[in-house]
């Protein structure tokens, strides 16, 4: 039985219109994300420019000053104490999350039975769904008392507890993304290593780990980007004392904690304290953007492609 060419053409035209509609919907969703990012950057830039227009504020003092007190007199506008507190938490959390997360990923990829992996990996990822403020209370009520037993001079708010709890928080990101990268390594590489007499540990650490290195390093950077932007956990655990100190047992303040402090205070809109929010936010945005760009560069530069 022959098909009417007119019906075939009409059906094809309807399908083309459907495909065009779907394409426009997807393109609109992508455009919304781009416009949202651009709007955030513009708002931060506008507010930061207004902050630097105040007669007492200079870009040089902001970037090089070691005292931060834009609201309380005597006022000072050096952002380095906030950057220092943020970096201390980030580095400390890396010392916790990277070894534990990498070891967990190796276990899931190379040692765990399929049935164990099926339940263990989702269980680990549940940690990522816990509200961050709960982590903060956990640090105050559980981690800090343990640290105080070991080091009695530790204060209620301290950077060590914040670094530990943020490290625990980002372990699922490190382990999950690293395990995905290791699982993508073809079995032919493993079998070749076993054929040469390599042990399970040697295959895991000398074959699979280097082969998946780009994805693993990218997971580290993404996790640290998450640590840099953490807010409520560090606000509760670390405190709100902007200072540059090498002692992790003392209270510090991160950029996000300062933004929370000003956000819940009674500073008036347009004041120098209010506008400092935008300058700190822009600085934080620049740091996380740089981390994400480094992650993308590492993945594209060192990615291994297998047939």
Description:
The structure is a single chain. The protein has 307 residues and is mainly α. It folds into two domains: 5-53; 68-302, Orthogonal Bundle (MetI-like fold), CATH 1.10.3720. It contains twelve helices and two strands. The protein has helices at residues 5-52, 59-64, 80-111, 114-126, 132-150, 159-183, 187-195, 200-211, 213-228, 232-238, 255-263, 272-302, and strands spanning 68-69, 76-77. Strands 1-2 form a two-stranded antiparallel sheet. α3 packs parallel to α6 (159-183) and α3 runs antiparallel to α9. The protein is globular, with a radius of gyration of 25 Å. The relative contact order is 0.14. The mean pLDDT is 87.
Can you identify the CATH class of the largest domain?
Answer: Mainly Alpha
CATH topology of the largest domain: MetI-like fold
- Quickly give the CATH architecture of the largest domain: Orthogonal Bundle
Runs with pLDDT <50, length 5+?
A: none
| Helix fraction by DSSP (H/I, runs of at least 4) | over 70%
């Amino acid at each position: 039985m022959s098909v009417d060419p007119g019906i075939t053409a009409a059906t094809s035209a309807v399908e083309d219109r459907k495909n065009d509609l779907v394409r426009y919907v997807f393109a609109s969703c992508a455009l919304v994300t781009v416009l949202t990012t651009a709007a955030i950057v513009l708002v931060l830039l506008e507010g930061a420019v207004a902050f630097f227009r105040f007669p007492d504020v200079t870009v040089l003092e902001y970037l090089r000053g070691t005292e931060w007190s834009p609201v309380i007199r005597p006022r000072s506008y050096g952002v380095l104490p906030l950057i220092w507190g943020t970096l201390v938490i980030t580095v400390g959390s890396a010392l916790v999350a990277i070894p534990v997360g990498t070891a967990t990923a190796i276990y899931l990829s190379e040692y765990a039975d399929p049935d164990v992996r099926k339940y263990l990996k989702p269980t680990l990822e549940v940690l990522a769904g816990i509200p961050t403020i709960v982590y903060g209370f956990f640090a105050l009520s559980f981690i800090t008392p343990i640290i105080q037993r070991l080091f009695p001079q530790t204060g209620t708010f301290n950077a060590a507890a914040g670094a530990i709890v943020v490290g625990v928080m980002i372990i699922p990101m490190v382990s999950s993304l690293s395990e995905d990268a290791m699982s993508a390594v073809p079995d032919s590489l493993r079998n070749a290593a076993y054929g040469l007499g390599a042990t399970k540990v040697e295959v895991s650490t000398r074959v699979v780990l280097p082969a998946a290195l780009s994805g693993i390093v990218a997971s580290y950077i993404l996790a640290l980007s998450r640590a840099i932007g953490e807010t409520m956990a560090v606000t509760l655990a670390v405190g709100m004392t902007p200072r540059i100190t090498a002692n992790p047992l003392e209270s510090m303040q991160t950029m996000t904690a300062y933004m929370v402090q000003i956000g819940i205070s009674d500073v008036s809109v347009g004041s120098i304290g209010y506008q400092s929010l935008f300058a700190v936010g822009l600085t934080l945005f620049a740091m996380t953007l740089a981390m994400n760009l480094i992650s993308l560069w590492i993945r594209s530069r060192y990615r291994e492609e297998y047939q």
